Amino acid sequence: MQNDEVHEITLGRSHYKPMLRQKVLEYLNSHKYITSLDARKEFGCMRLSTVIKELEEQGNIIIRHTLPNGIVPGEIAYSILEGGKVGTDHNQSNSIAG
């Protein structure tokens, strides 16, 4: 993991560096979805769910999908709603056929 991708702890909550959030956001915009395994392989990110939550806090609309035929049955994949920044919460749960 590079120095710009190391997270810092602030008041007991993990806040990932902006560079890692940006890399995950770019990946979401250029791929169909991202899983924790993808994030680990691509960026060395061990806490994708935290990065996703921080992206949502910035106004990005992230959709959670269940991958029934993934490496781990029931694995969660995240995708971004196309054009996806608004001020309201639009979390959805879907299933992507594997």
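The above is record 1. Record 2 follows with the same two-line structure.
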Amino acid sequence: MIEVFKYKEINNHLIHEWKIIENDSFLTPFQSYEWINHYTNIILKDSNVETFFFVIKYNGIPTDIIPLCIKKQFFFKKLEWIGGLNTDFMGIISSKK
């Protein structure tokens, strides 16, 4: 069974699931919990950005994290990957399963 869970911020439960995926994946350092947590806490801290993390579980085991944000620009809201203009790590975080 596939389940999807949404987190608006990084918390202990999300960290635990992230570490499970990290231990069974081919991630770049920029997709690690430590990097994205630092990015959201330092770079996005005072910005007009909302973060969302979707965790996909298959048979109760976390297999993917989709790190997204909503950026407010003028009168518009734009959904995009968490990351900056000059980053190449934006994307889904997946286990090998």
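The helical segments are 12-22, 33-43.
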